[in-house]
Design brief:
The complex is a heterodimer of chains A (116) and B (111).
Chain A: E1 5-7, E2 10-13, E3 19-24, E4 31-37, E5 43-50, E6 53-56, E7 65-68, E8 75-79, E9 88-95, E10 111-115
Parallel strand pairs in A: 2-10
Antiparallel strand pairs in A: 1-3, 3-8, 4-5, 4-9, 5-6, 7-8, 9-10
Chain B: E1 5-7, E2 10-14, E3 19-24, E4 31-37, E5 44-49, E6 55-58, E7 61-65, E8 71-76, E9 85-92, E10 100-101, E11 105-110
Parallel strand pairs in B: 2-11
Antiparallel strand pairs in B: 1-3, 3-8, 4-5, 4-9, 6-7, 7-8, 9-10, 9-11
Classes of the chains: A mainly beta (116), B mainly beta (111).
């Protein structure tokens, strides 16, 4: 496992469908962070998870969005009843422990969600 | 609310020229990170600056953190076409996992 793996790379959904985005952290990492990037904008924090625990979801919309990081398997970001405004690139990063000051993220290649 | 503003938003120059991009805020950050992002890929970390006044060099790239830890700059000497990309700065603010991101500087180096 060379890095953070995200799939699918591209996802097209019709309005009202569900989108599931997966993130497999680097080997040995137990902390996952999800960010969203809108076109021509910087990244925005969404949620921070440890295995089986949501630590901070303050950046995630209260409705339609949920995230999990089970004991086994990848972290999942789930968007229900997608709308056009959900179209964006979604990135995740991982770390072995809580980030220490100055620790830089290693990001996956992202999932580009397009809602039609 | 902590914000980071990057300037310029877009820069197109000839190969061999020098350039500087800026990342400014009215807030203090415990560190600033610079990333480069290629189309269709995730951001890749270039450097982290932690101490006010710190200067770090990465080959032809020079990064500086302002004395007050509110701003940073990236200077590229003798730009090459391979430097083309989106340069993003990100600051560690109230929490060290909730990075605050600038909107980026889109840099194009023409041969």
């Amino acid at each position: 496992n060379a890095g953070v793996m995200q799939n699918p790379r591209h996802l097209v959904r019709r309005r009202g469908q569900e989108a599931r985005l997966r993130c497999s952290p680097m080997k040995g990492h137990s902390h996952v962070y999800w960010y969203r990037q809108l076109p021509e904008e910087g990244l925005k924090f969404m949620v921070y998870l440890q295995k089986e625990n949501i630590i901070d979801e303050s950046g995630m919309p209260k409705e339609r969005f949920s995230a999990e990081f089970p004991k086994e398997g990848p972290s999942i970001l789930r968007i229900q009843q997608v709308v056009r405004g959900d179209s964006a690139a979604y990135f995740c990063a991982s770390s072995p422990i809580l980030l220490t000051p100055g620790y830089g993220y290693t990001f996956g290649s992202g999932t580009r969600l397009t809602v039609v | 609310t902590q914000l980071l503003e990057q300037s310029p938003q877009f820069l197109s120059i000839q190969e061999g020229e020098n350039l500087t991009v800026y990342c400014n805020s009215s807030s203090v950050f415990s560190s600033l990170q610079w990333y480069r992002q290629e189309p269709g890929e995730g951001p890749v970390l270039l450097v982290t600056v932690v101490t006010g006044g710190e200067v770090k060099k990465l080959k032809r790239l020079t990064f500086q953190f302002g004395d007050a830890r509110k701003d940073s700059s990236l200077h590229i000497t003798a730009a090459q076409t391979g430097d083309t990309g989106l340069y993003l700065c990100a600051g560690e603010g109230y929490s060290n996992y909730q990075l605050i991101w600038g909107a980026g500087t889109k840099l194009i180096i023409k041969p």
